[in-house]
């Protein structure tokens, strides 16, 4: 049995927004929605979201996700304190607990699955996701033996100059044997500069603990401000566009094109520069869109041409030409 806990209680003051950080959109979905979607591949029996700042707003944003449980962290006193709040909810739980961050939305489903499989294969008490980061400043460092068994984790602010030369960082993503973790959580102490309860401290009480390196370190990049949000969007767009080009879609000047990862395209679609595809859009084979067009939540048939136009919430049938300078909306059918 697997449970997933998503840490989503923080305000995110560096976002300079009243909106909770995890509710900010990254493409077509919010950050926390992406994390929920990414964990579905491990088929968790329980999904718990730890909420705090504007918890009602976070809960409302996830209203369409059935079966999600919400656990309140009234005071944000660190990651260890957040997971402590799960103790009443998971009192009778005996499986594995995946701990994910609501502001780390680029983590692939395959990476989460690999972390869980490694954890279960080796029957670890805990398994940490790690990464070899080119610039590890600000991240906790992970030290392991030759078999990737963890020996020590040190937060960046507590590292010596020599320890900071280690580029293996803690991604803040964990898999625990809950039966072994639960009795350890009350032992955590806030003996650090921030006076917070670090979840990383539980490894001092657990054995065995193993680290698993992620192949692509960009997956574990956290989002704390608008610049990092924009960087994450660029990474997501590169993934989406690379996937479609490999599938037989032509993108002319890809850097000027944006495509939501909810869009569906058939082979031999051609997307011209300065064109943006949004929402639940579907486009048929042989269709040419752009330049300078926006297609949103619409269906375009085969061999359609759209030139300098906007199509929203509409259906365009095969062999139709739209534009230039047309605006279809309001469930139009052409």
What are the defining features of this structure?
single chain; 18% helix; 6 helices; 7-stranded mixed beta sheet; 5-stranded parallel beta sheet; Spore Coat Polysaccharide Biosynthesis Protein SpsA, Chain A; elongated; alpha/beta; UDP N-Acetylglucosamine Acyltransferase, domain 1
Report a brief summary of the structure:
The protein has about 325 residues and is α/β, with parallel strands linked by helices. It contains six helices and 25 strands.
Quickly count the domains. 2
Percent of residues in beta strands: 25-35%
- Report the mean per-residue pLDDT as an integer: 95
Major sheet: order of its strands?
Answer: 5-4-1-6-10-7-11
Number of helices: 6
CATH class of the largest domain: Alpha Beta
Radius of gyration equals: 23 Å
Helix/strand-derived category reads: alpha/beta
The shape is elongated
Q: How widely separated are the two ends?
A: 50 Å
- Poorly predicted sequence stretches spanning 5 or more consecutive residues: none
Characterize the biggest β-sheet: 7 strands, mixed
Helix content: 10-25%
Total beta-strand segments:
25
CATH topology of the largest domain: Spore Coat Polysaccharide Biosynthesis Protein SpsA, Chain A
Protein architecture, described:
By secondary structure, this protein is an alpha/beta fold. It has six helices and 25 strands. The strands form six sheets. It has a seven-stranded mixed beta sheet with strand order 5-4-1-6-10-7-11. The longest helix is centred in the last third of the chain and has 21 residues, at 226-246. The radius of gyration is 23 Å and the shape is elongated. The N and C termini lie far apart (50 Å). The model has no long low-confidence stretch (mean pLDDT 95).
């Amino acid at each position: 049995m697997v449970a997933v806990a998503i840490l989503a209680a923080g305000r995110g003051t560096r976002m300079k927004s009243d909106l909770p950080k995890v509710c900010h959109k990254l493409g077509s979905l919010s950050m926390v929605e992406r994390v929920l979607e990414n964990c579905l591949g491990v088929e968790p029996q329980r999904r718990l979201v730890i909420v705090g700042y504007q918890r009602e707003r976070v809960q409302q944003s996830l209203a369409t996700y059935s079966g999600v449980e919400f656990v309140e962290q009234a005071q944000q006193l660190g990651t260890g304190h957040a997971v402590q709040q799960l103790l009443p909810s998971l009192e009778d739980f005996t499986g594995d607990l995946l701990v994910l961050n609501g502001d780390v939305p680029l983590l692939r489903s395959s990476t989460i699955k690999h972390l869980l499989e490694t954890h279960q294969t080796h029957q670890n008490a805990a398994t940490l996701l790690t990464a070899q980061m080119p610039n590890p400043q600000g991240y906790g460092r992970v030290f392991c033996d030759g078999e990737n068994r963890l020996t020590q984790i040190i937060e960046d602010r507590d590292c010596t100059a020599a320890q900071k030369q280690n580029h293996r960082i803690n991604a803040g993503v964990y898999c625990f044997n809950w039966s072994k973790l639960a009795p350890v959580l009350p032992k955590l102490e806030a003996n650090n500069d921030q006076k917070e309860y670090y979840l990383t401290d539980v490894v001092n009480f657990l054995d065995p603990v193993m680290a698993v390196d992620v192949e692509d370190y960009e997956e574990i990049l956290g989002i704390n401000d608008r610049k990092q949000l924009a960087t994450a969007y660029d990474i997501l767009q590169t993934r989406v566009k690379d996937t479609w080009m490999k599938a037989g879609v032509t993108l002319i000047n890809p850097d000027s094109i944006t495509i939501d990862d909810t869009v569906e395209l058939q082979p031999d679609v051609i997307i011209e520069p300065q064109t943006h595809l949004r929402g639940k859009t579907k486009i048929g084979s042989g269709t040419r869109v752009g330049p300078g067009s926006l297609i949103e939540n619409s269906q375009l048939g085969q061999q359609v041409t759209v030139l300098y136009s906007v199509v929203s919430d509409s259906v365009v049938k095969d062999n139709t030409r739209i534009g230039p300078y047309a605006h279809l909306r309001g469930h139009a059918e052409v």
